[in-house]
Amino acid sequence: MEVINRYVTTKSHINGTPKESDFEIKSSTLVVSAEPGSNDVVLKNLYVSIDPYQINRFKSYSSSQESISDAMAIAPGEVISAHGVAKVVASENAEFEKDDLVVGMVCWGEYTVIKGDQYMLRKLDPMAMGFPLSYHIGAFGTSGLTAYSGLFEVGKLSKGEKVFVSAAAGSVGHLAGQYAKQLGCYVVGCAGSKEKVALLKEKLDFDEAFNYKDEPNLKSTIKEYFPDGIDIYFDNVGGEMLEASIANMKNFGRVVACGAISEYTNTNKPAALNMVEIIYKRIMIRGFLVTDFFNIYPDFLSFTVNHLRKDSLKTLEDISVGLESIPNAFLGLFHGANIGKKIVKLADD
């Protein structure tokens, strides 16, 4: 059987803030069958993840920078890979059968053909059954694992510590703050609207939250919430927010460098770190990628599932519908439009 497979791609490199005109929808004919003996798997994509880090894959210089090449640079016109949930429609791989539900690297398209070694493709974990499929790319996916590993593995979080989370209403931040609360920590988050601030405090149990857009002096604002200093700053923003947070760190404080969305589209304003302060306060700053911690996935999933079932953890999702909505969904990330994990639903399961 042949189908028309539609997919989203970029028209050219994107070096600044993305625009809708940077993207287009292409189509190609796809044979929905796997060649005998090929080890191929053909998937119908159900949900795909929309993540701000992907802008770094679209830049003209991404393929020449080793650090960004590690995040898989994408040239204009190429299929855009992304985490997603899919249904197997044909398989020549012994590990997967028709109608299996799987999660892994698919693409911003209606179908994906996985060839060879099934890179990052696995069946849904039985431990997480009974939850919406979208959770498998959010709370149970890379967003959740990023928050969990960032706090517990990178930050070495201890009970009762003081934690500051930027972009706290985003896909990773809203989970990171709640994970810290499970250990009795004092948690403050910042976000970009009154609605998000209220959500953090009223629904997600953050101790405090503030709208950074209303604060002319971030350094003094953070000082108000952390008069004795910050133990862990979970950084999703970089730039001025990182500078202000470092100024308010305790001795031996830890900065978990997860993302730098303020710098992704504006390379003219990178963080200017106060190295004297970092040295004399013995502050640790460590960047990481979620792929560094796939080995702890079972522990992360058990912890997350248990707290979701007990309702001591909540997850936020922002779901758009249809392939055509992908470009705008992506653009919205850079204007603070999303609340929680941004996902696009492509088909019913």
Written account of the structure:
- This protein is of the alpha/beta class and 349 residues long.
- The chain has 2 domains: 2-138 and 316-345, Quinone Oxidoreductase, Chain A, domain 1 (Alpha-Beta Complex), CATH 3.90.180; 142-291, NAD(P)-binding Rossmann-like Domain (Rossmann fold).
- It is built from 10 helices and 15 strands.
- Strands 3, 4, 5, 6, 7, 14 and 15 form a 7-stranded mixed β-sheet that branches. It has a 6-stranded parallel β-sheet with strand order 10-9-8-11-12-13, sandwiched between helices. Strands 1-2 form a two-stranded antiparallel sheet.
- The longest helix has 13 residues, at 142-154.
- The chain is globular, with a radius of gyration of 21 Å.
- The mean pLDDT is 92.
Multimer state: single chain
> What is the CATH T-level topology of the largest domain?
Quinone Oxidoreductase, Chain A, domain 1
Q: How many strand segments?
A: 15
Strand content: 25-35%
Q: In CATH, what is the class of the largest domain?
A: Alpha Beta
Number of helices: 10
Major β-sheet, in short?
7 strands, mixed
Estimated helix fraction? 10-25%
Structural class: alpha/beta
Q: What count of structural domains?
A: 2
| Average pLDDT score | 92
Distance separating the two termini: 20 Å
CATH superfamily of the largest domain: Medium-chain alcohol dehydrogenases, catalytic domain
Instruction: Identify low-pLDDT runs.
Output: none
Provide the succession of SSEs.
EEEHEEEEHEHEHEHEHEHHEHEHE
Structural Rg? 21 Å
